[in-house]
Amino acid sequence: MNNVFVYCETEGATIAEVSQELLTKGRKLANELGVQLHAVVAGSDIKNKVEKQILPYGVDKLFVFDAPGLFPYTSKPHTDILVELFKREKPQICLMGATVIGRDLGPRVSSSLTSGLTADCTQLEIGDYDDKKAGRHYEGLLYQIRPAFGGNIVATIVNPDHRPQMATVRSGVMKAEVLDEAYAGEVVYEDVAAFVPAEDYVVKVIERHVEAAKNNLKGAPIIVAGGYGVGSKEGFDLLRRLAKELHGEVGASRAAVDAGFCEHDLQIGQTGVTVRPKVYIACGISGAIQHVAGMKESGIVISVNTDPAAPINAIADYVITGSVEDVVPKMIKYYKENSK
Fold first, then answer.
1. Phi and psi (nearest 5°) for 290?
2. For 195-204, what is the mean pLDDT?
3. 17 vs 203, residue with greater confidence
4. Beta-carbon contacts of residue 207 (< 8 Å; ≥ 6 apart)
5. Is the pLDDT of residue 273 over 70?
6. Torsional class of 284: left (φ above 0), alpha (ψ -120 to 50), beta (otherwise)
7. What count of other Cβ atoms lies within 10 Å of the Cβ of residue 216?
8. Pairing relationship of beta strands 10-11 and 123-131 according to DSSP bridges
9. Surface-to-core class of residue 134, CB atoms within 10 Å of its CB (0-12 exposed, 13-18 middle, 19+ buried)
10. What is the pLDDT of residue 150?
């Protein structure tokens, strides 16, 4: 009772990376609260296939729901599973990925349980809260932290009275770390029929198409990212040349995407991809909170900007003051001359 729960998403019998990231964070939150970490997974033909992908992250109890109608994902069966399970288990926290599935499932579950939900969190912490108006003190609440008002502020949201405290987190925001390959967690195989009535399966997936990503921003060791300061699509062609020389990937800020300089799938930040490269070269990027939220875990940050006072420079390890069209060709030339 009152444990931390993580909903584990599946693609066939493979657990989503974002779920493993949340299991790692969930383990840390559970330790702070002195409770157990529980996980729930629902799919088809997943028994004896998913346990070793979940338990090593420090899961004390895993609830497995295995039935033919649970994959591909449809809203009603998964919603009923979580709602009924949470009514029985009464968790204090539930975490899930801010994916297509999480964004559909999270609001349905929170609405059914009247618990509330904070979407797209960039940080999760445990802390206390004083409601001065009601004169009440709360201990051990989940701080659900995310950029707000277009990324102009960072908001810390708490849910003092309703349970579970629910939050979704984007893939890549947290770091997945196996706690113990032989972690001895309990596995419970639930009777799906006791949770999901037959009418829940009235919606069936006739055809399903999964398209591979066009880039590998999440796994790239080097990223050359462009902002509005790049100035044009042609400017991004220059960044692509540099990225090709460095065997890296090209990324972008929201301002560059909104300006039409590049495709949306290159967007890094709160409303895009979260990355952790070894080297992040920020070209013409101002450094708004929303963008920084998606790249602040980078190893080395190099800023190329005409404005020496650009906010991105405050977190950069190296700052090059100059225009992208002047600096980047020199970087390409220097790398070619010294990489032979």
1. -60, -40
2. 89
3. 17
4. none
5. yes
6. left
7. 9
8. unpaired
9. exposed
10. 63
The backbone torsions φ and ψ at residue 281, rounded to the nearest 5 degrees and listed phi first, read: -105, 110
Identify whether the C-beta of residue 108 lies closer than 8 Å to the C-beta of residue 200.
Answer: no
**pLDDT the model gives residue 282:** 96
Q: 133: pLDDT confidence band, cut at 50, 70 and 90? A: confident
Do residues 64 and 189 make contact, with C-beta atoms less than 8 angstroms apart? yes
What pLDDT score does 324 carry? 92
- Residue 164, preceding peptide bond in cis (omega within 30° of 0): yes
Alpha-carbon torsion (39, 45, 50, 51), positive or negative: positive
Q: Which residues, at least 6 apart from 100, have a Cβ–Cβ distance to it below 8 Å?
A: none
* Amino acid in position 311: P
Q: Are 117 and 166 in contact (CB under 8 A)?
A: yes
The three state secondary structure string of the chain is CCCEEEEECEECCEECHHHHHHHHHHHHHHHHHCCCEEEEEEECCCCCCCHHHHHHHCCCEEEEEECHHHCCCCHHHHHHHHHHHHHHHCCCEEEEECCHHHHHHHHHHHHHCCCCEEEEECEEEEEEEEECCCCEEEEEEEEEEEEECCCCEEEEECCCCCCCEEEEECCCCCCCCCCCCCCCCEEEECCHHHCCCHHHHHCCCCCCCCCCCCCCCCCCCEEEEECHHHCCHHHHHHHHHHHHHHCCEEEECHHHHHCCCCCHHHEECCCCECCCCCEEEEECCCCCHHHHCCCCCCCEEEEEECCCCCHHHHCCCEEEECCHHHHHHHHHHHHHHHCC
Pick from 331, 317, 153: nearest CA to 245: 331
Could you tell me the two tokens for 167?
Answer: 């939050």
Asked whether the bond before 72 is cis by omega within 30 degrees of 0, the reply is yes
- For 47-80, the pLDDT digits (tens) are 999 999 999 999 999 999 999 999 999 999 999 9
